[in-house]
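hey can u check if this looks right to u? its 227 residues, i copy pasted from the old doc so theres a chance i mangled smth
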Amino acid sequence: MVIDHSYWRRIVSSIERIVKAGCYTKVNRVISLTLDSYLRDLTGKIVRGYRTILDSGCGPGLLLDKLPDNEVICLDPSLTLLKLSKDKHKLSHHICGVAEAIPLRDHSVDAITSLFSFRDFIDREKAANEYMRVVRSRIVIVDLFKPANPGLRLVAAMYLSYIAPLIAMGIAGKIGSEWRQLYKTYLEMITLNTLREIFRDFKQEVAVSFLGGFLSLIDLTRIKNKS
């Protein structure tokens, strides 16, 4: 569950280049068949009732307009991406840091969101433990997971390794080749069953799941008297 640090730096740099090129949102919308937008909207609806929200791996701040009245703490290891999100939300705070060492007190936020960032963490289990330490109530994770079914796992791998990069290059040109990183991070990603085991002290619901769990929204609620 641990990614090599030098490889992790390449992932962050790749995302920065894509965002700077201005094609991040458009390409992701197409290769996800608009599901990224749908899942972002749904995440906003789930956590909107909570006062303080940590958006972990916030990137350029695409979730912020879904939470106009919430206090949102944006956490990302990239200063470049944090700068892009700073003017999007009047109640947002910005922290340059990693999910494996969140610089917040225990139980200091009501909810945590992690949209398409969990698979890019250096140590996913350590990040999950930090989530459980910091959060009071709710965690929503949206990401690509390895399907348990071998056939579906092969389909997902083929899509990410060949089809998605070709679509990205068709839309964005040469910079689209950066989407090849999707397949590499997918290979390192855990299964839904592993995620369930990590968060075993939380009530769990796979609220949305496509292609046998390949693209999923996981809704986790802290069980009372568990900390």
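The chain is about 40% helix and 20% strand.
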